[in-house]
Design a protein that fits this description.
- This protein is an alpha/beta fold and 264 residues long.
- The protein has one domain: Rossmann fold (3-Layer(aba) Sandwich), CATH 3.40.50.
- Helix content is 42%, strand content 17%.
- It contains eleven helices and eight strands.
- It has helices at 33-46, 63-67, 75-79, 107-110, 114-127, 144-150, 164-180, 196-214, 228-235, 240-243, 248-261; strands at 21-25, 51-56, 90-92, 97-100, 133-138, 155-160, 185-193, 220-225.
- Strands 3-4-2-5-1-6-7-8 form an eight-stranded mixed β-sheet, with helices on both faces.
- Helix 1 packs across helix 11, helix 5 runs parallel beside helix 6 (144-150) and helix 7 (164-180) crosses helix 8 (196-214).
- It is globular, with a radius of gyration of 18 Å.
- Mean pLDDT is 90; it is low at 1-15.
């Protein structure tokens, strides 16, 4: 259906600031957050979304490593003022989406002043107007730097596994985020579950804690089953949806995208 922009009743509504930004978080590292961010962005692109993947794991960035990229420009150039975010954007032709890479082990990013980080976050929100969806791969934990980058996101996906420390730290992230921004759309992704049913059980454990202590019920965005194809894809620095598009984990991420796109 084509909208007639000359009609006052059919004119497209302006996009709400940050509404199309999806922040991917985790309480702790090692839960597959970066892999999930990459696969989520790829899945969005495969259904026709103009998508951008932003590596916001400051100081420990590895999106470029998992994709086998050697970017000419990255966030360090943006932080120092040599480039704009738009100029640091790389077109990843194989996946059909754009990437803004970080720089692993860069002190200039890990120690960025909070005021500069807030400007960077606001600039990213402006850049998001050029895309259907922007996925931000956050660093692990609940540090202020992580919370600032998550601050303008319309949706926050918290990735957790069945490890007790993962659930505890995921709860901590949800608690801090919900307390600071009560209206935030926070959803849970259970990764590396042995089955969908087990993933739902893991989610219910986290849900009970949220309901009991926070009086808040973050919905389940989806369960991603444990899949050896994921490790193979990471080892070969190739997206799962390129190397093994029919794998169980690929299907699970695509199902999460379908649900996300149904959100009003």
């Amino acid at each position: 259906m084509t909208l007639d922009s000359t009609s006052p009743n059919l004119a497209p509504r302006p996009r709400v600031k940050g509404r199309n930004v999806i922040a991917v978080a985790s309480g702790k590292g090692g839960v597959g957050k970066t892999w999930f961010s990459i696969t989520l962005t790829h899945a969005l692109a495969r259904v026709g979304q103009r998508a951008l993947l932003f590596d916001g794991d400051l100081g420990l960035a590895n999106v470029d490593i998992q994709l086998g990229l050697m970017p000419k420009h990255d966030l360090a150039s943006v932080v120092t003022g040599r480039l704009t975010l738009n100029q640091a954007t790389l077109v990843y032709d194989e996946g059909g989406f754009d990437v803004i890479a970080g720089r692993s082990g860069s002190g200039s990013l890990a120690n960025i002043p909070l005021s500069r980080l807030q400007i960077l976050s606001d600039d990213l929100t402006l850049l998001a107007n050029s895309y259907d969806r922007v996925v931000v791969d956050l660093g692990a934990g609940v540090e202020k730097t992580v919370r600032i980058l998550a601050g303008n996101a319309g949706t926050v996906l918290v990735v957790a596994t069945d490890e007790p420390t993962s659930l505890t730290d995921a709860y901590a992230f949800i608690k801090v985020t919900h307390t600071e921004r009560p209206g935030t759309d926070i959803r849970v992704v259970v990764n590396m579950a042995n089955s969908t049913r087990e993933g739902e059980r893991i989610y219910n454990t986290l849900l009970k804690a949220c309901e009991g202590f926070l009086k808040f019920s973050p919905p389940l965005a989806g369960v991603v089953r444990r899949d050896l194809k994921v490790r193979e894809a990471i080892r070969n620095q190739t997206p799962l949806l390129t190397r093994s598009p029919t794998s169980e984990a690929a299907a699970d991420v695509e199902a999460i995208v379908t649900r996300l796109l149904k959100t009003p």
